[in-house]
Amino acid sequence: AQSVTQLGSHVSVSEGALVLLRCNYSSSVPPYLFWYVQYPNQGLQLLLKYTSAATLVKGINGFEAEFKKSETSFHLTKPSAHMSDAAEYFCAVSHTGGFKTIFGAGTRLFVKA
Amino acid sequence: EAGVTQFPSHSVIEKGQTVTLRCDPISGHDNLYWYRRVMGKEIKFLLHFVKESKQDESGMPNNRFLAERTGGTYSTLKVQPAELEDSGVYFCASSLDPRTVTDTQYFGPGTRLTVL
Which among A81, B17, B58, B61 is least surrounded, fewest beta carbons within 10 Å? Predict the structure, then answer.
């Protein structure tokens, strides 16, 4: 069985500060891991995806995430927050040939001026 | 290229009524998925179509929910009769082939359903 836990339903940072959104997963098979972002009144947009190649995955808008098998973590980071990063972020897990994506509960990111 | 579209964007109905949600996938995407997010909780998988066939409907809550994809193009999700706990945001996604490493699910904006 697969599951995802996102630590913190709300995270607030100042503009220019480091963004760190935490995600831990559980999977009995090698996982595919994802981060999606949802801006207000829009659909989910894929930020980045891990598929067992490089453990450090770079995504769009300056975000990246590192797969750490020993910690079963896939935390999302961005060195410098921008006001436009304010949105809800979802971590998700799937596996090769798996059609079903399992999502975490989401973390809402607030960016203060 | 048009993305995944969903209609309506919002629906408010009374308990016991019927509602039909529609999803138009990206052209050429054989795989179509329905997900639901209830009350700020996690987004949960409902079912998966490959063309017109249901590949996996393990996430469908109960028999009040009926999904169809006639002709393998757009899909509908009918809730009949609707209950209060059905309120939430229903997302549709489509993809080319989930068996490949490069496959990506593209999501629509969702339909927000409110049952009063």
Answer: B58
| Structure tokens given for B15 | 């308990």
For A55: left if phi > 0, alpha if psi spans -120 to 50, otherwise beta; the answer is alpha
Cα dihedral B36→B45→B110→B106 (10° resolution): 170
Decide: A65 and A49 in contact? Cβ < 8 Å: no
**Res B112: pLDDT:** 95
A90: distance to nearest CA of chain B, Å? Answer: 9
CB contact under 8 A, B43 and A90: yes
For B41, the closest of A43, A92, A105 (CB atoms) is: A105
C-beta atoms of B45 and A45 within 8 A: no
Angle at CA A85, nearest 5°, toward A81 and A90? Answer: 115
To the nearest whole Å, the CA of B38 is away from the closest chain A CA by 10
Cα–Cα dist A26/B25, whole Å? 30
- Beta carbons of B107 and A43 less than 8 angstroms apart: yes
pLDDT digits (tens, 9 = 90+) for A43-78: 889 999 998 778 899 999 999 999 999 999 999 999
